[in-house]
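Sequence in, structure out. First:
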Amino acid sequence: MNYNNELRIALPSKGRLREGMDQLFLEKGVIFKNLISDREYIGSIEEINNVLVYFLSAKEITNRLEEGSIHVGLTGDDLVQEKIYNYEKRISKETKLNFGKAKLVVAVPNLWIDVVTMADLEEVCNIHRNKFSRRLRVATKYKNLTNQFFSKCGVVDYRTIESHGSTESAPFNGFSEIITDITSTGETLRANSLRVLEDGLILESSANIFKSLTADWDQSHNESLKNFLTKIA
């Protein structure tokens, strides 16, 4: 089947973004059709012509937006800014949605009572290097955003450790000294005896509808996008 004429929309298949999306679409009367079962990952939207919907992970949506294989995707600011180099030139934010709100932050152990700011952290990095002959470790899933933020704050004597699981447990398990992580309420950080530095906010993120600037667009695609955005407004 040739899908060139359809507006290709990617929506989250699971997680907190899917939960927020389901609630929004229920309120707005957005109904999916042509879904064979709950496990089907492709469909369309009633009352909006020439639309093809894919259900993907938020991370894959970000990748597809960058390469232009989808026209529109629902994902978070955090993934877009972490995964897409020069993202402003490759995608545009069409609509900010009122869910999926979270913050990417720098968190340190509660026992570090004298470390309150990023300037304090830089001093600790230097002490750590001199004492242990190695750089302070920062566990994170957001290496690029972390490096950009630390550089802006003048913190250089550290190294990032890529996290593939529960980032907030890394200091307790001895895998890192501190972390940067995404948090909505801060409860998980507190449960792991971590706290956010006073000036440790890296990014405020929320769910958004993004438009790929690298996809092939024509008048019918733009018209379908307009109808979709009107439906969920």
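Second:
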Amino acid sequence: MFRRFERISHGILMHMNVGRTLARWFPVPETLLPKSAGVDISDTSVKWITLEASGSGYRIAAYGSERLEPGIVEQGTVRDAEALGKALADIRGRLGATAAHAALPEEGAYIFSMRVPRESPREQIRNMLEFELEGRVPLALSQVVYDLDIIPDASPDEQEQEVGVVAFPEELAAGYAAAFDAAGIELLSLEIEARSIGRALWSPADSPQSDIVLMADFGRARTG
């Protein structure tokens, strides 16, 4: 599942550790969870895929791709939320779901890593991160939404661990949220597409010293 931004912003909800713990021990019945699709939005297209349970695993229930007219999204920024909302509404019936996790281009994101004391509580990491954001992102903290991940490393004996951080201007995230809202699709989360690809190709069960050394995304207009 896509991770959620730490700050509450236009329907993008905080994904708390407590929530994950409760979900693990007291799982929400599947009938109460909205079926969701993974949606990838770039400057030139909207792509989607929906999985459904099948035996002990999953199978593809729906997938597809539609071109976007030039100018709707430019360098990762929504220039015409109404037009993007219409494009999403046009594919809503083919999603096979009523909700979505969206992957966004990296152009509008600020991506960096920092080191924190190992085993630091997430709340403590978030407090340290807010100080770090002031020097890394040329925006006021109130204008930023962000997420963080603990990066697995090959030297667990070190006293520090690496944290990967992704920050978006709140206005940019709000543009995507508005488009999904206009399309009548419940937006559950936003994240950069590189993180989505990485999670799809690598899992925590893999060793940090695995054979994966490079992941490349070849798109119509760019490679990342």
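Remark: DSSP finds five helices and ten strands in the chain.
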